[in-house]
Amino acid sequence: MRSVRARAALGATVVVALALTVAGLAVLLVLRANLTDQAGLQAEVAAREVAGQLALDVPFDRLDMGDEEDHPVQVTDEEGRVVAVSKDLEAVSGTGTDRVTPRPAPSPAVGDDDGDGDRHGGEDRDDDDDGGADPGRGEISTDEPDFSNGTATVDGDRAGYRFAAVEATTRAGLTLTVHAGAPLAAERRAVASVRGAMLTGLPVVLLVVAGVTWLVTRRALRPVEGIRREMAAITASEDLSRRVPEPGSHDEIARLARTTNETLTALESSVDRQRRFVADASHELRSPIASLRTQLEVGAAHPELLDVPGAVADTVRLQALAADLLLLARLDAGERPGRARVDLGALVREEAAQRTGDRIAVTVSVPEEGGPGVTGSRGQLARVVGNLLDNAERHAEGSVEVTVRAEGGGAVVAVTDDGAGVPEAERERIFERFVRLDDARSRDDGGAGLGLAIARDVAARHGGRLTVTAGAQGGARFELWLPAARPDAGAPDRP
Description:
The structure is a single chain. The protein is an alpha+beta fold. The protein has helices spanning 4-55, 185-237, 252-301, 308-332, 344-353, 378-395, 451-461; strands at 73-76, 82-85, 89-93, 139-140, 146-154, 157-169, 175-183, 340-343, 361-365, 373-376, 399-407, 410-417, 465-470, 476-483. It folds into 3 domains: 4-190; 252-320 and 322-331, Helix Hairpins (Orthogonal Bundle), CATH 1.10.287; 336-483, Histidine kinase-like ATPase, C-terminal domain (Heat Shock Protein 90). The chain contains 7 helices and 14 strands. The strands form 3 sheets. Strands 1, 2, 3, 4, 5, 6 and 7 form a 7-stranded antiparallel β-sheet that branches. A 5-stranded mixed β-sheet has the order 9-11-12-14-13. The radius of gyration is 54 Å and the shape is rod-shaped.
């Protein structure tokens, strides 16, 4: 079952079915228990009425047993013999004995102990003519009666009954047990009626639940289907400028649509940057390759005209550009920097020492106690410092100054030149790839526009930042901030 709507409808239907089944069973059990208790109460009342008559020594054949069809009665003595039954009682079960034929037994009348079964003269005897004997008073047991379920056949009709057993003691001390029943037909009809209604209504309720769940889920998932269709169209057309529809609601689906559009925007921007990068890289590579090919073809035809220094210079440019492109590719792929401890002051001194014979002198200022330590890749950080020095020397008029200091829980390398500076509106643009503000400058004298982009990317990968401001002498001031070395940093990375 692959449809979310079908799974939701099925799940809701199963849950409701289980809940209704459990609730229905509970209702039936409670209803049956209440009706059974009512029948037991009726049986107890009928049994106590007969027991009261026995306690008053009413003869067995004169007992008023009420409605004998609704309340069949069976009276037994201490030995379990049946001494009286209600009229038309043909069979009984659930009372301890299934006999319904009375056997001769002593009369409940006081003094009638001759065993002749005479049940007619006891009520006319005077208890005071007993030679002074006090036979006592009859009584009814006040204990909770015993209840049981059984059947009784009255005048040919067999039905189920709830029986109550109540004990009564005559004045002569004879203990009798009265079993009186109350019909369970009403209880069974009520339970059957409720059960039938539940069995009839349950499928209808489940169909309604399934249908409503299907419709509600379909309506709720309709925007998702729109998002899916638009994403399929975007995939087929490869047009990342398209966006999925955003519903007007403020639920999870609306947030999903907004997040999807944000992802498409980021993806479109990334693809555009990648395309521009490829185009710019191809453009930058075309010039030195064409120049090198021309020189080699001329040298092959006229060896005396071969410009070896020019060919070497073009090869060096190609090598540097290839190295920059490779480093950018590694950075874009998410290459993690090393965890070695780097002495930033020593690193700056080494990079400045390599430029001793350059056109512009580089002045280095490092704290006497040594430069602050940072964590990262020594090779990448050296590339950043080298790119900043190359940029400063390219634009400086007479001096470049480099300072290293600790600041804000990290280390700062500031490179300042006395050149023309960077216009404030262009201070972020210069960190983009293949961007050069001096378009009139020849490609041979300038770089490919990757140095500052590489420097900022490396700084970001190391948890730092690279910014540019105006220098004190009017030139540009680049500041590289890096977090201080972590306590778990590895051993110092040697050059």
